């Protein structure tokens, strides 16, 4: 039962009643493009792009400090070293994103024991390319969605996008307990790399980012588990958003005729240490919980400094973030889908036992935070 000792019994009964009506996460899948780059590959590319020896001597330690061994990209290392127009980059985004979205969506639906025609609502999250019709419409032309499917494309949330998408999927399934919601979070960070941008922020981005996609199936409380599905025992019972004022320059893009230029403040770890704990504590308190009542933290691996800041801010052992570190090491920071990659590993390891709680947390442009509270079903 959720709650803390001393709260009124009727309050606890109310929490249990709401919990029984919660949407459920019943399937989760991830996918990455075919090109695999080692950190040494990226470092050689950066040596070509950032030709100033003095600049390299001052800044190339970012590759060792990032603690990333490999990442996946939809384009080759040779392509990354060449100049391309915004239009060409975006065409490649649409081409590869459509293919990868279909792959990861099909995997998630198969694990859920559903078909594309069972989906009532699709939420598509991405910030690394533009498409009108939106990417969910392109996906609908790859899969057998019904013509009456509801669509919610979400753009501009960056690294917070996966957690936001999970929140929106939960809310749609809460509003319609019979709904089956497909969430897709997909980023192709590689097509945004600009070899003509020789700023330190572009170097930091090159040391961190990779490509990836995740898909999740969230269903309302009246949806029965399909007989052929492999259920994930997770109830999604709360979410919370926070937007900090006067932080617009912390994270995001600036956009010009060349492409998307990354905005990535060095102050992000400090903001995590100072602002995340109060936001999380307030969120949990609304549900009669404290940090001690959450057994698992599923943090977006924005970088090793960000993960250290999470551990310090929430006063947890760094070892509790080993899944996030492993995702970062193997895939880099993939922006929006990263927290779902971490959640997949937590679930594969069987870490969340019945009755245990997990908190998904991610930070993004705005500057903003997104938190999703879930519990292992009994």
By oligomeric state, this entry counts as single chain
| SS element count, helices | 13
Shape: globular
Enter the CATH topology name of the largest domain.
Peroxisomal Thiolase, Chain A, domain 1
Number of strands: 13
Q: Give the % helix.
A: 25-40%
SSE pattern:
HEEHHHEHHEHEHEHEEEEHEHHHEE
The CATH class of the largest domain turns out to be Alpha Beta
**Computed Rg:** 20 Å
Number of domains: 2
Distance between the termini: 11 Å
What is the averaged pLDDT score?
A: 89
* Unreliable spans: 1-19
What is the SS-derived class?
alpha+beta
Neighbour order of strands in the largest sheet:
5-4-6-7-1-8-13-12-11
CATH architecture of the largest domain: 3-Layer(aba) Sandwich
Strand content: 15-25%
Please identify which CATH superfamily of the largest domain we are dealing with.
Answer: Thiolase/Chalcone synthase
Write a short abstract of this structure.
By secondary structure, this protein is α+β, with helices and mostly antiparallel strands. It has helices at 9-20, 39-49, 53-59, 61-66, 77-80, 86-112, 135-140, 161-175, 200-208, 268-285, 304-314, 322-331, 338-348; strands spanning 24-31, 35-38, 70-73, 121-126, 150-155, 180-188, 211-219, 234-243, 251-255, 260-264, 296-299, 357-364, 368-376.
């Amino acid at each position: 039962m959720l709650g803390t000792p001393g709260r009124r019994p009727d309050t606890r009964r109310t929490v249990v009643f709401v919990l029984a009506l919660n949407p459920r996460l019943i399937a989760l899948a991830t996918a990455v493009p075919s090109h695999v780059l080692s950190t040494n590959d990226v470092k050689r590319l950066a040596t070509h792009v950032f030709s100033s020896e003095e600049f390299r001597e001052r800044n190339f330690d970012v590759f060792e400090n990032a603690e990333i061994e490999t990442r996946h990209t939809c384009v080759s290392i040779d392509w990354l070293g060449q100049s391309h127009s915004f239009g060409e980059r975006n065409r490649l985004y649409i081409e590869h994103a459509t293919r990868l979205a279909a792959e990861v969506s099909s995997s998630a639906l198969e694990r859920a024991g559903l078909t594309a025609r069972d989906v009532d609502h699709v939420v598509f999250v991405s910030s690394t390319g533009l498409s009108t019709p939106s990417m969910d419409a392109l996906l609908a032309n790859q899969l057998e969605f019904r013509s009456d499917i509801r669509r919610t494309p979400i753009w501009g949330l960056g690294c917070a996008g996966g957690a936001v998408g999970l929140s929106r999927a939960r809310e749609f399934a809460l509003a319609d307990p019979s709904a089956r919601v497909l969430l897709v979070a997909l980023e192709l960070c590689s097509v945004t790399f600009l070899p003509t941008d020789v700023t330190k922020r572009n170097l930091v981005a090159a040391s961190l980012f990779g490509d990836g996609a995740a898909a999740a199936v969230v269903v309302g409380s009246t949806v029965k588990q399909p007989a052929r599905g492999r259920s994930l025992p997770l109830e999604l019972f709360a979410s919370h958003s926070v937007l900090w004022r006067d932080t617009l320059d912390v994270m995001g893009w600036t956009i010009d005729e060349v492409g998307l230029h990354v905005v990535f403040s060095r102050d992000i770890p400090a903001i995590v240490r100072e602002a995340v704990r109060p936001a999380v504590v307030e969120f949990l308190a609304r549900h009669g919980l404290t940090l001690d009542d959450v057994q698992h933290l599923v943090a977006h691996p924005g970088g090793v400094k960000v993960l250290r800041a999470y551990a310090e801010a929430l006063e947890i052992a760094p070892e509790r973030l080993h899944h996030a570190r492993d995702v970062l090491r193997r895939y880099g920071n993939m922006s929006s889908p990263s927290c779902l990659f971490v959640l997949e590993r937590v679930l594969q390891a069987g870490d969340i036992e019945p009755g245990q709680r997990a908190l998904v947390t991610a930070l993004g442009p705005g500057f903003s935070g997104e938190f999703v509270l879930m519990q292992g079903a009994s």
